[in-house]
């Protein structure tokens, strides 16, 4: 039997985006009583995704996530996405009806989902020619009760998929990449994220006269770029074989900052996933 090609009928990457779930740092009550996410984070590695230094919306975050400038004019279409990532087939499942309508108008296949048990069924439908699924779970408001309800929904979903999919995929000689992104609410863009104690100590010993080399987050497509350093997205990656494991205990922001994936631009994140799937050239080291 020949090896499956990048365009065979199977989901190879699931990306969960929990949109607007964060409003401050060290909100311990938000991360209590999580089952699936606690187990999932201990098998993966964590990083921070930096956005452009302008006000953000769900739509501009999504443009960046796809690898485009946030306020691209006209907004990127599905045809442009497929051209950028060598015919990568994408499907979006979203809790937001208006977000779905906007994406559908640009040619994306977006399904409005209000019953998340249907998500597992859709992802398991191997008769559909889809390689990447983005599950967009948006909070109803910034009230703690709504955000808690949202993260428990995400926890339930990932508990189902993370425990069931890898087993079934392994039986079919498949590797599936799972990523979970948590973003701050758009009107909470100025939240400072502290350094770990080890990072602070390392920074303290650098002499004032020493100029650090330019970082990858300071450039985009070879041009100087100013990224916002506050309110990053946190991303947890579980990519079997190709991803290291962090020494992180528990799914919470005070643990996320210990992640070994460091910082990168949101606009470069999907390119790394696409590379692992054979749909993009390698980015970075």
Describe this structure as you would to a colleague:
- The chain has 285 residues and is α/β, with parallel strands linked by helices.
- The protein has one domain (13-276): Alkaline Phosphatase, subunit A.
- The chain contains nine helices and ten strands.
- It is globular.
- The two termini are 33 Å apart.
Summary?
The chain is α/β, with parallel strands linked by helices.
Largest sheet: 8 strands, mixed
By CATH, the superfamily comes out as Alkaline Phosphatase, subunit A
Class per helix and strand makeup = alpha/beta
In terms of DSSP E residues, the strand content is 15-25%
- Outline the low-pLDDT stretches: 1-9
Ends distance: 33 Å
Provide the domain count: 1
Bulk shape? globular
Average pLDDT over all residues: 85
Q: Using the coordinates shown, work out and report the CATH topology.
A: Alkaline Phosphatase, subunit A
The CATH architecture would be: 3-Layer(aba) Sandwich
Order of helices and strands: EHEHHEHEHEHEHEEEHEH
CATH class: Alpha Beta
The total of helices stands at 9
What helical percentage do the residues reach? 25-40%
Biggest β-sheet: strands ordered side by side in the sheet: 4-3-5-1-6-9-2-10
């Amino acid at each position: 039997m020949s090896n499956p090609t990048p365009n065979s009928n199977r989901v190879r990457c699931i990306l969960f985006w929990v949109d607007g779930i964060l409003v401050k740092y060290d909100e311990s009550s938000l991360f209590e009583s999580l089952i699936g996410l606690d187990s999932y984070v201990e098998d993966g590695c964590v990083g921070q995704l930096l956005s452009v230094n302008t006000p953000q919306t769900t739509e501009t975050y999504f443009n960046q996530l796809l690898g485009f400038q946030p306020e691209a004019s006209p907004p990127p279409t599905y045809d442009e996405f497929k051209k950028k990532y060598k015919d990568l087939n994408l499907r979006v499942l979203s809790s937001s009806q208006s977000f779905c309508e906007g994406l559908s108008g640009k040619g994306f296949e977006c399904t409005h989902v209000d019953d998340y048990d249907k998500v597992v069924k859709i992802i398991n439908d191997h008769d559909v020619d889809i390689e990447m699924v983005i599950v967009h779970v948006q909070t109803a408001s910034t009230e703690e009760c709504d955000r808690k309800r949202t993260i428990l929904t995400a926890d339930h979903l990932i508990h189902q998929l993370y425990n069931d999919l890898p087993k079934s995929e392994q039986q079919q000689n498949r590797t599936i990449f799972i990523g979970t992104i948590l973003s701050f609410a758009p009107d909470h863009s100025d939240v400072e994220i502290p350094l770990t104690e080890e990072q602070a100590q390392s920074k303290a010993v650098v002499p004032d006269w020493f100029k650090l080399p330019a970082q990858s987050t300071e450039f985009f497509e070879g041009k100087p770029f100013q990224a916002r350093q506050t309110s990053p997205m946190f991303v947890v990656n579980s990519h079997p074989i190709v991803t290291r494991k962090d020494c992180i205990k528990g799914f919470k922001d005070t643990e996320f900052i210990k992640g070994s994936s460091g910082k990168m631009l949101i606009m470069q994140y999907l390119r790394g996933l696409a590379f692992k799937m054979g749909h993009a050239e390698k980015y970075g080291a």
